[in-house]
Every structure is written in structure tokens, then in C-alpha cells.
Amino acid sequence: MNAYRTTHAGAEPPLSMSEREELRKLKVENRELKLKSEFAGKAVAFFAQEYR
Fold first, then answer.
1. Three-class HEC string of 1-44
2. DSSP state at residue 51
3. What mean pLDDT value characterizes the chain?
């Protein structure tokens, strides 16, 4: 990763304000979806134990 950054430094234009906002929203959404997925997995494991 560091090698890529040093060879491609400045190759990409900086993000605009709208792109930064969209990236922030996507990161928040991604975090929420990961938490929901983790919770669903735990719920499935819990109920699977009850039926054994």
C-alpha cells in the first residue's frame, strides 16, 4: 500500500465536498449494516441452540 501511494502520489484529484459527504454517509451506512449482520448472526446462533 505504501509503495502504491508513493508511486501514485497526487495521481488522483482530491475529493469534492459532495464526494466527501457521500463517502461519510456510506461509511456510516456500512457500519450500521455490519452491526445488523452481526446481530442477525448472533440471533440465529441463539435460536439454533434452543432447538437442539
1. CHHHHHHCCCCCCCCCHHHHHHHHHHHHHHHHHHHHHHHHHHHH
2. T
3. 89
Positive or negative: CA dihedral 33, 39, 41, 47: negative
CB 27 within 8 A of CB 35: no
Rounded to whole angstroms, the Cα distance separating 35 from 19 reads 24
The pLDDT value recorded for residue 30 is 98
CA–CA separation, 24 and 34 (whole Å) = 15
Contacts of 15 (CB under 8 A, 6+ apart): 23
| Residue with more model confidence, 2 or 33 | 33
More confident of the two residues 11 and 34:
34
